[in-house]
Amino acid sequence: MDAIALDPRLRHAGAFLAKSHRMLIDGKFVAAASGKTFAVTNPATGTLIASVPEGDKADVDLAVAAARRAFDGGSWAKVSPSERGRLLWKLADLVEQNLEELAELESIDNGKPYAVARVADLPLAVDMFRYMAGWATKITGSTLALSLPGEYLSYTLREPVGVVGQIIPWNFPLLMAAWKLAPALAAGCTVVLKAAEQTPMSALRLAELVQEAGFPPGVVNILTGFGETAGAAISGHPDVDKVAFTGSTEVGKLIVQAAAGNLKKVSLELGGKSPAIILPDADLDAAIAGAASAIFFNHGQCCCAGSRLYAHKAVYDKVVAGVADIAAKIKVGPGLDPATEMGPLVSDEQFARVTSFIADGRESGARVAAGGGRVGNLGYFVQPTVLENTTPDMKVVREEIFGPVVCAQPFGDDDLDAIARQANDTIYGLAASVWTRNGGIAHKLARRIRSGTVWLNCHNVFDASLPFGGYKQSGWGREMGEEVLHNYTEVKAVTQAL
Ligand code: ADP
Fold this sequence. Notes:
Layout: H1 14-18, E1 23-25, E2 28-30, E3 37-41, E4 48-53, H2 57-72, H3 81-97, H4 99-110, H5 114-135, E5 143-144, E6 152-160, E7 163-167, H6 173-187, E8 190-194, H7 201-213, E9 220-223, H8 227-235, E10 242-246, H9 249-259, E11 265-269, E12 275-278, H10 284-296, E13 308-312, H11 316-329, H12 348-363, E14 367-370, E15 385-388, H13 395-398, E16 405-411, H14 416-423, E17 431-435, H15 439-448, E18 453-456, E19 475-476, E20 489-497
Parallel strand pairs: 7-8, 7-10, 8-9, 10-11, 12-13, 12-17, 13-16, 15-16, 17-18
Antiparallel strand pairs: 1-2, 3-4, 5-6, 6-20, 11-19, 14-15
Helix pairs in contact: 2-8, 3-5, 3-6, 3-7, 4-5, 4-7, 5-6, 10-11, 14-15
The structure holds adenosine-5'-diphosphate.
The site of adenosine-5'-diphosphate has 17 residues, from α8 and α9.
């Protein structure tokens, strides 16, 4: 194996990266049962930054058994809701105290600019733990009035679903761990979480903070390993009561199949092909900047990226020129370089995927208004790319690219149903943005668009209180907000004849 090559710009995360890495199972830091490890690389250079345990089925079995003991044996059930809240709040404090280190880990592991991790990923993760800390004491049932003859007392209890398997992606590694862990723990579940193989570092550091916060053994287990082995072992495990997954629609379907064995509950936050729709009366400067940020934020590696840009023909040329101009000026470079605005894609695989989509777009007749190529010849850098002259049947318009590539199309229609039909012409339904000064039109379109989120005059606005998730093939259930607690609770109806 190559020697570890750490970026000299690292100021906080070097010591952690240089450590020997272990997974958290049953309150202890352990190597994989097989002894195997796998390499973690810096996407800006392709060089090794760490080796981490290659957890697989044997490790998942140990983690699930520990989570089962903590759940069934009652060590977690005996912890009061307020104590669960206190532990989550403590974890939030610890994440906040280690913000710079965690932001550096995200940057060197995922490729995103350090500043973005520092001001977006990390504060949102801290907020998620705090927001859910508040919910731990507020999960309630209701009393019900029956219409049967006789007198009854009926009420519902909302109970934790049990042992939860959680499988997360690489685009916001720590934030996705927070989105998953915080509500499950607030609800009283125990957890086996697997980090994405491309970006395991911040989850392993988070595991240390989980220990420091004082969660009882087995309540939180954090594993590193590959999807086809460790991930599949979680989603197929007979002793896991529920699996929560964020990732591609393709893998989401595999999770559903694997979950069928014991009919475990499933929640899925999957892909998207989200439209950004610019009407002729929009504040064009704001709309152009917003549409550019909708696709280029996090290098387009967002399930809700505004990857289909629809602009009214009256403003289309100006919008495309404006977004292309912003694209051309984005400073692409290593995430740890303070001047960088966009880092590399996460892996060679994503680089190959995104560049092949761009090639396919060109071949099928799209015109490249900006970008279209790679940057440099080291690492996985792709230029922010604007494709225009695209048509609804093109692969680049239909499929999720998950990179900094937007497909622009004009529309001539002022009929809101027709605009919404175009926006809804996709198997996905995760998010959309509408840009207009007309509040009535904005809200009418919000009703007509079939997606879990509609942003009006903004895009990519997240908050722990806002439910997020998809219609259609973008998923099942919602992350965040009060809504996510439904993913992690069962409802029990209790009736007494009086
Ligand atoms: P991407 O295509 O963006 O890499 P994936 O959907 O492949 O996203 O991966 C998201 C997460 O799902 C990762 O943690 C990965 O290890 C996991 N995963 C991949 N394949 C499977 C599978 N067959 N079963 C369970 N988890 C999987």
